[in-house]
């Protein structure tokens, strides 16, 4: 290379170096993000020291290490949002947790019966912001219909965790007095053997038992048993001072009769408390 060429090359190198120095100077001299009067990370806070992501005026990033101000979606919450104000689990840029509640915490609530967590997997959650995973009467860990069975799938009245009523279609679980005995459903209606029993009628055979052993007017007795599936119990009583209304059994059938209080064939006895004395 001749002398002229060397001079040109030297001038070119000097120019490049000078340009680089000017660029570096401009970059270094430019306001940093923590000192430029702009809310660069959109958290409503501007520059040092107001923005917790700024460590100094020279910090060139308003993002910090706090969970709601670090530019990252927390691995501890279920949504895909990051930081305040985008993640509603963050109350401010100073908030140390992006978790918004039971529907955003990757934990199955112990108040509901299913084994699902968070929105949208748990149908009890309407949003990530929902504060309850309970989906209804069949998902609340409560025996709402008093049949001794709780929630889906244990309670036959529940067709899913989303079912809003534990009552079913079987007569002993439908909330209706099907046999008109003023008793409703299992276990209140004795005609129901379980909540899936489809008949409230008592299936007991006809029977009769008499505590005084028959027509014994000198003892107040009680007959009890079942007739047409319904239980009964009747106790002897005085119709007047000389007459007992006496209940007694004829096989499995209950009968009754008026019995006079007599002594030696004469109407001299007295009825008191359902017996002749």
Largest sheet: 3 strands, antiparallel
Task: Compute the separation of the termini in Å.
Answer: 152 Å
Structural shape = rod-shaped
Overall mean pLDDT score? 89
Percent range for helical residues?
Answer: under 10%
Proportion in β-strands = 5-15%
Oligomer: single chain
> Whole-number radius of gyration?
44 Å
> Structural class, judged by helices and strands?
mainly beta
Q: How many distinct beta strands? A: 8
- Order of secondary-structure elements: HEEEEEEEE
State the gist of this model.
The protein has 277 residues and is mainly beta. It has one helix and eight strands, in the order H-E-E-E-E-E-E-E-E.
Q: What are the salient characteristics of this protein?
A:
single chain, 277 residues, mainly beta, three-stranded antiparallel β-sheet, 10% helix, rod-shaped
